[in-house]
């Protein structure tokens, strides 16, 4: 075994046998918060947040000119921690407009924008703000500033 570190010329250079002390410290803090909140509490808040977002979409964003539709199952027991928000024609560019506004969505071709409020740190106010961002993006036609060609990462 060589005493000098010689990294591989590929992504394999990032592999190590043990996690770093700093990385482990961050995991320790995250686990503490998770254990304090409890998985049942996290799941309950997650369901409340996704239900709230779906109600906002139904009330404010489902009709003309917005045309959003919920693709996620409505039944809580069938739903995870995100909402699949569907738009028939401009999902990619709306996704890019959200990113430009500081929201971190996840685009799935051909027409799904996944919104995932995180129960441990997002608030209901932030969920409402995302719905209002979507409303304004459509009303102001902000999505038209963005390319219809998908980037490598969207």
Structural features, described:
This protein is an alpha+beta fold and 154 residues long. It has a domain at 45-145: Aspartate Aminotransferase, domain 1, CATH 3.90.1150. The chain is 43% helix and 8% strand. Helix 2 (39-61) runs parallel beside helix 4 (124-139). The mean pLDDT is 92.
Structural key phrases:
alpha+beta; four-stranded antiparallel β-sheet; Aspartate Aminotransferase, domain 1; 154 residues; globular
Brief description of this entry?
With 154 residues, this protein is of the alpha+beta class. The protein has helices at 21-37, 39-61, 91-100, 124-139, and strands spanning 69-70, 83-86, 106-108, 112-115.
Shape, principal axes of CA atoms:
globular
CATH class of the domain at 45-145: Alpha Beta
Taking strands numbered 1, 2, ... along the chain, how are they ordered across the largest sheet? 1-2-4-3
Would you identify the CATH H-level superfamily of the domain at 45-145?
Aspartate Aminotransferase, domain 1
Q: What is the second-level CATH architecture of the domain at 45-145?
A: Alpha-Beta Complex
User: Low-confidence segments, ≥5 residues, pLDDT <50?
Assistant: none
- Could you estimate the helical fraction of the residues in percent? 40-55%
CATH fold description of the domain at 45-145: Aspartate Aminotransferase, domain 1
């Amino acid at each position: 075994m060589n005493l000098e570190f010689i990294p591989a010329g590929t992504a394999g250079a990032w592999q190590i046998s043990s996690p770093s002390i700093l990385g482990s410290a961050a995991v320790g803090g995250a686990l503490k918060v998770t254990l304090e909140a409890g998985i049942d509490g996290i799941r309950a808040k997650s369901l409340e947040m996704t239900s709230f977002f779906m109600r906002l979409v139904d009330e404010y964003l489902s009709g003309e000119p917005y045309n959003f539709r919920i693709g996620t199952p409505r039944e809580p027991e069938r739903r995870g921690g995100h909402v699949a928000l569907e738009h028939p024609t401009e999902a990619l560019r709306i996704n890019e407009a959200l990113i430009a506004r500081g929201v971190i969505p996840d685009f799935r071709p051909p027409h799904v924008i996944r919104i995932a409020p995180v129960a441990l740190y997002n608030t209901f106010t932030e969920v409402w703000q995302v719905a209002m961002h979507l409303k304004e993006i459509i009303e102001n036609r902000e999505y038209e500033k963005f390319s219809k060609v998908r980037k490598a990462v969207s």
